[in-house]
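Case study 2.
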Amino acid sequence: MSLPPALAEIVEDFAALGDSDKVTLLLEFAAELPDLPEHLQTEAMEPVPECQSPVFLSVDAADPQSVRLYFSAPREAPTTRGFAAILHQGLDTASAQEILGVPSDFYYELGLGAAVSPLRLRGMAGMLARIKGQVRNQIADTGSGRPGT
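Prediction:
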């Protein structure tokens, strides 16, 4: 599996834990999701309807060698917020090509299937798909890279 180094490290951390500890780590990630910068408003961000909670994301691929990711997820939704934080920590500042190369089902490697419902896991898949879509659109618009998978 081809993952950017930061995301690969997160997957390894989860793989080393038992189910209850994986949930604890997911909740720790939820607490670490950074607040949105002042210049971003949720209304201008893309919603992720695959999530059970209101999640919004924004991608800035102006520099395809260091893509920036921003998420808004409610504190009352720690699972969803944790998924957003994993994607943020694992993919923020990765290159467009690294992000596009992440397998769409990489989240299975986190081993959360026994602890988190398939519906919630689908939310993480939705976030990743929307990140990739925005990256593809932005690099196609600027001609600064070629879209990947």
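The helical segments are 5-15, 19-32, 78-91, 96-100, 118-142.
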